[in-house]
Structures are given as structure tokens and as C-alpha cells.
Design goal:
Number of domains: 2
Order of helices and strands: EEEEEEHEHEHEEHEHEHEHEEH
Mean pLDDT: 86
CATH topology of the largest domain: D-Maltodextrin-Binding Protein, domain 2
Shape: globular
Distance between the termini: 27 Å
Oligomer: single chain
CATH architecture of the largest domain: 3-Layer(aba) Sandwich
Structural class: alpha+beta
Radius of gyration: 20 Å
Low-confidence stretches: 1-13, 15-34
CATH class of the largest domain: Alpha Beta
């Protein structure tokens, strides 16, 4: 069990589902903390995103982000369950207390007002992927250049890709940024020629290409956006003391765990 220096003893009430989380602190010189969950925490699953989180069968899930989360929660005597949800319902589920945790969340001003965040546990490099047979715009490393050429680029509009992409969403350009919810759907639309490219995590794209031995996909070398990734938590269900305990456990877990960069 992780020893956590702290000076409190609180019960964490989950009003949305009448579940109580106890964070018990024992004061003995440097105090030890144990966060005990009376029921499992709920992690949102929005679709396969190999290698981070993906479904093995109807009741089993795997992935590097899930493994890190499970290992960290085990230090706090907490278990995890999975709740499949459409992407568009994720933040609403966290706000209402229906769900507790989302993986791989980037911080944004709006999210910081509504949710808790863990320490950063890996870095995500978002890139643009396209078919090999597609002619490139004059500046392939510039998303604006693609849009000025009238190209349609898919992305998950619920993600945060930096202020530059936010400005391009509002710009009057020939092309457009199209919300497509899942990684698999973005790949399908690209292969069918319904979009000219899509933005996603470089590690996930490389893993998919290797797994399926694809030869016709290419990535632009320059990143659209590089950002730290965090676990994002419901404020409805979890108190700051729990997040502090989780972050200390996560810090210890990361010392012995390798996560994709």
C-alpha cells in the first residue's frame, strides 16, 4: 500500500448513486492512507482505441491506459468496471455522476472548470493521416493548408487539439473539419474516400497500421498538437482528497511502468 502524507479523515459521498467512498487516514508520524471503494469506479469506454483501451469480448477489456489505471487503483483498494457509452455522452455522464473516469483527457479551460484531473501519465502526439494515393497540399504540415485546398479532415470534436485547431474550426475556409466519433469510423471514412484525412494519436495509428499490415496509409511528420494526457474524474462523485491520494499512487506506479509516448 502506498504511504501518503496527509492530515484528514473523510467520507466521500456519491450522491448520484448513493454510494459512499471512504478515505481513511491513520496518523502515525508520517500518516498512511487507504482509499476504500465500497463499489468499483466506472470507466467510460467509447470504442476500441488500440493500444490504450479496447474490447476483447463482451465483458473483458484491455489496453495500456486501462492497465495503468487498474494498477494505480489497486494501491487504493479500488476496483474498476467499464461503462460503454457514445462519445457525445461522456462529459454528460461525468457531470451527472453516471461515470467516474475517462482515459487520455487533455486539459482545456472548460474541462478544468467541470472535472478533476490526474497527473499527466503520457504524452499524446496528434498527427494527420492520409491515403498514399492522395495528392498533398503545398504545406502538408499545416492543417490550414489542407483546409485551404478544400480538403475534409475528420477528428473527434470532443477532443482538445490546441488553440490553433479551435481557431480553424471557426475559420471560413474551403475545406472543413468534420466530427467523426470513433477511431474505427474515421479509418473507414478515409478508406472509402469520404474524408481526405483525419487527426488522431500517432501511437494508435502506428499500432493499427502494424496490426493490420496496412500499406496505403501515411502520416504527416509534423504534429498537429502535442499534449500531456490525464485521467479525468467526475467532481460529482469524487472529492479532492481522493484525487490527491490517486495522484500519489499514480506517481509511484509510473516509476515502474512504461507507457507509450
Amino acid at each position: 500500500m502506498i504511504a501518503i502524507p496527509c492530515y484528514f479523515s473523510v467520507s466521500l459521498l456519491r450522491p448520484a448513486r448513493s454510494r459512499v467512498f471512504w478515505l481513511i487516514v491513520l496518523l502515525v508520524g508520517s500518516c498512511g492512507a487507504s482509499a476504500r471503494c465500497t463499489e468499483p469506479l466506472t470507466l467510460v469506454f467509447t470504442g476500441d482505441w488500440f493500444p490504450y483501451l479496447y474490447r476483447i469480448n463482451d465483458s473483458s477489456y484491455a489496453g495500456s491506459d486501462k492497465a495503468l489505471l487498474v494498477e494505480t487503483l489497486a494501491e487504493l483498494d479500488c476496483q474498476l468496471e467499464i461503462l460503454p457509452l457514445p462519445e457525445k455522452r461522456v462529459e454528460r455522464a461525468l457531470l451527472s455522476g453516471q461515470a467516474d473516469i475517462v482515459i487520455a483527457a487533455s486539459k482545456s479551460p472548460k474541462r478544468l472548470q467541470n472535472f478533476w484531473f490526474s497527473l499527466a501519465y503520457r504524452t499524446q502526439r496528434n498527427v494527420l493521416v492520409y491515403r498514399e494515393d492522395l495528392s498533398l497540399p503545398p504545406e502538408p504540415g499545416s492543417l490550414r493548408s489542407w483546409l485551404q485546398e478544400g480538403r475534409i479532415i475528420a477528428l473527434n470534436d470532443g477532443g482538445w487539439y490546441g488553440s490553433n485547431v479551435e481557431q480553424l474550426k471557426r475559420a471560413s475556409l474551403t475545406g472543413s473539419l468534420l466530427h467523426v466519433e470513433s477511431f474505427g469510423s474515421r479509418l473507414d471514412m478515409l478508406s472509402l474516400g469520404r474524408v481526405d484525412g483525419f487527426i488522431d494519436d500517432a501511437e494508435a495509428i502506428n499500432a493499427y497500421i502494424a496490426k493490420h499490415q496496412l500499406k496505403d496509409l501515411r502520416m504527416v511528420n509534423e504534429a498537429i498538437h502535442t499534449t500531456p494526457q490525464h485521467f479525468m474524474f467526475s467532481r460529482q462523485n469524487l472529492a479532492p482528497e481522493f484525487i490527491n491520494a490517486f495522484n500519489q499512487a499514480l506517481s509511484e506506479t509510473l516509476k515502474t511502468t512504461t507507457t507509450p509516448d
